[in-house]
Design brief:
Chain lengths: 345, 345
Amino acid sequence: MTTAEKRLKNLQSQYIQLAHGNGGRFMRELIDNLFAYHLNNSLLDTNTDATAIPIDGTQEVMVTTDGFTVKPLEFPGGNIGSLAVHGTVNDLCVSGAVPQYLTLNAFIEEGLEITQLDRIIASLGTAAKEANVSVVAGDTKVVARGEGGGLYLATTGVGLRDKSIKLGTSQICPSDIILVSGPIGDHGIAVMLAREQFGMRGDLQSDSANVLPLSQALLKIPGLKFMRDPTRGGLASVLHEICQSTGLNIRVFESQIPIREPVRSVCEMLGYDPYYLACEGRVVAVVSEKQADTALAALQTLADGKQAAKIGILSEGQPHLILETELGGERFLELLEDDPLPRIC
Amino acid sequence: MTTAEKRLKNLQSQYIQLAHGNGGRFMRELIDNLFAYHLNNSLLDTNTDATAIPIDGTQEVMVTTDGFTVKPLEFPGGNIGSLAVHGTVNDLCVSGAVPQYLTLNAFIEEGLEITQLDRIIASLGTAAKEANVSVVAGDTKVVARGEGGGLYLATTGVGLRDKSIKLGTSQICPSDIILVSGPIGDHGIAVMLAREQFGMRGDLQSDSANVLPLSQALLKIPGLKFMRDPTRGGLASVLHEICQSTGLNIRVFESQIPIREPVRSVCEMLGYDPYYLACEGRVVAVVSEKQADTALAALQTLADGKQAAKIGILSEGQPHLILETELGGERFLELLEDDPLPRIC
């Protein structure tokens, strides 16, 4: 019997039961042997209702929250556990903060295999350690078979930001340059292929990762105006938001936008538009024209930024998002309406 | 057409669709016309990923989180929206903190009626205002029909606590007195009756409420050792936790524990044990023997504390929880194993 098998044997069942959510002994055993085991840190006390978090009062406290319903729960390059860390941590990173603490909610469906839950929460713990955040509070609920998609997670993140940082669409002006830190759409296509609903398989991995190294490198560039991680709705949705907030026109160049070959071919085959596909480890940044090359160079020195690129430019004019195609044509990228891939994050 | 009908007309459908979760226009309309409308406050900016929260650095920052899956979504005395505020706010209150901020995650099932979602989020907004907390960040996900129980919510709360406050089971000693702020089990039975699975109906309302007035009154009592809100697992589970943490014996008196007549009769009819039923607006407190009457009087002056009572006492001995019955007998209240009422909160 492996150590994990021994540890999980205390749960007295291979599958989640309703009693694992009842506030009694079964729930306590699930929390102690699985959640607390993987998320262990000095601040996490599973016997209290609220936890004190040390906050450095000279910094600005930033908060964000995100829910996760990805299907399947495990996919090449990650699972819903690592994703639940990256998604929330990244929202803090692109706000200019350094993530510090997470809270975790798990909605578990009766019948979920406990070894699968264990793998997922182990990944969550590893991703949290890598991002240097502590899970300081948590809650689990069990819902009856048929009333949940296996497992939904929600994380809330608390980070600290230097008070001098000023980022946002209000800082953006004409001639600013748009950068992306790496290839787009990997997460969307990796999850889609993992569903096997199209009978396709590929080597493509999700880009799910924490973007702290990227965001911290960009924060050193004086001309940095705005950062965002393109998740649901993809690159196009982030750029649309910029158009709408600034009233400026955005022109992006098809030939400059990094897209991996497998993503491109799946999109061509199935008629998906890669500009709307979710990423989970990329940063879109807006930088002054003067500093754009410095920012690009800073990204390219990082492991996750090797394929960073300048992809577009802002200008006066109608607040439209225009894609200049490789053949020199123009295409309006509209605001997303129907959902290309539900339950992608 | 009522104002609400006009506002919700912008959503273009009477029911939640998958496209309401896609990161595009439908999601934006749902957030603007429904969530932001009810949760409106100066810190909530639905266009950013992370929000700065002003924190008073002289106080301790407390964090807690809770998930909500109650079924039915609406019940006498509240709904999943008000419950999602009370549950999290109360965890902060009993830690000794004053709640300040909430984050909100909604997992919405495709097909949920939008007017029902609107009522629920309206209640959530009202409960937040009453508790004087701002919802500063949120996220919505839509899951396909059959993959969710209508609506699940998760809230994370941030509160501030005076650094001098020392509460916890480590403060508890023999001869300390256990108080409860009001009748137990109202929430559990009200939700159960609302399910109508037993063909019964009653006038009983959930006790769902924020306990800030109760907790703040108790914090003024110098002999206060410990507070907890008995939710899932009920009064017995809180007392078990005290036994286990302190190694002390607890004796509670059946004749002293306030239980409303309808709760008592439903329990007798169906064989439920009221000591394990969920409350959502009660406080269990442990106070020194000397200060117990002062604490009781302080509770009884409050609207929600009129039926407060001294219900038990701690002593040296085996860490067991013993109920002294009205007839003078003794009964061990064991740690909860099976789930009397799933999806109660």
